[in-house]
Every structure is written in C-alpha cells, then in structure tokens.
Amino acid sequence: MHSQSATYNAQIEQLESKLRQSNQQIVQVKEEFQQYKTRAHALLEQKNSRGENDTEILELVAANKKLESELIFKSSELKYAQDKLKVAERDLKRAYELNTQLENDFEKAQRAAKENSDTVKSIQKQLDNLTEDNEHLKAALKETEARYLANVEDFEDRLKNAIEAKEKNLKQKQEENEALQKISEVIY
Q: What domain range is 96 assigned to?
C-alpha cells in the first residue's frame, strides 16, 4: 500500500512538472504570438502606407497560423495533463483512504489480539488456580482417607477385642452353666 502511494506521488510530481512546463510553453507561445501579431499589424499598417513587404506579411500570417495551431496543441496537451493529474489525485485520495481504513482495521485487530491474549492469560491463571486447588483437595482427601482407615482399623481392633471378650465371657458362662447342670443332675 505504501509503495502504491509512493508511485502515485511520483506520478503526480511528474504530471505537475509536465504541467508547469506546458504552462511555460503556452506563456511563451502566447508571447511569441503577441509579438507576431504586433509585428504583423505594424507591417500591415506599413503596407497600407507603403504597399510593400507582401512577402514578409505572408510569412508573418503563416507564422501566426502556425503559432495559433501550436497554441491549440499546447492547450490540448495542458488539458490532457490536467485531466491526468485529476485522475492521479483522485487515485491517490482513494489510496490514502484505503490506507487509513487498513491502518484502522490493523489497530482493531491488534486490540482484539491483545484482548484475546489477556483472556487466555486470565483463563490460564484460573486453570492454574483450579489445578492447585485440585492438588490441595487430593492431598486433603488422602489425609482424610488415611484417618478414616486408621479409625476403621482402630474400630475393628476394639470390635475384635470386644467380641473376643464376649466370647470368652460366653464360654465362661457356658462352662458355669454346664457345671451347674451337672450339679443339678447329681442332686436330683
């Protein structure tokens, strides 16, 4: 886009230079035309007064016609250069507008990219926090599970001891009961 803008600027400078040259040539042709007109007029007056120099007058008239056609040609060249300059200026204006639009779009894209980057960083931070929380919860769960298993083992040990004590007590009672039955059988 920048190179296209530089190309248009170079073309405009060339056209403006050509336009200045054409304007200078037109001014020069107009001056020459005016000089020939003045000279022709003076010669015409001399001819009228003297009746001489017909050849010089014809030459001046021919030169006058040549200068008139050259003036017309230079004027059309000037018009062409002016039209071309207008087109180049219009193209340059469009190029500047497009360049401005592209710069605005680029700035918007940069802002969006920064916002996306900030969002990604924020999400990554949240993910890191959640991962850390998850690790803490896993450690707490392992600790709770270890305490639970220790409590279960302790409960099982107490239950086993209580069952053994009850079984021992029951066996002792059964033995006492059997002994009492034997005594009762002996008595009766």
A: 2-137
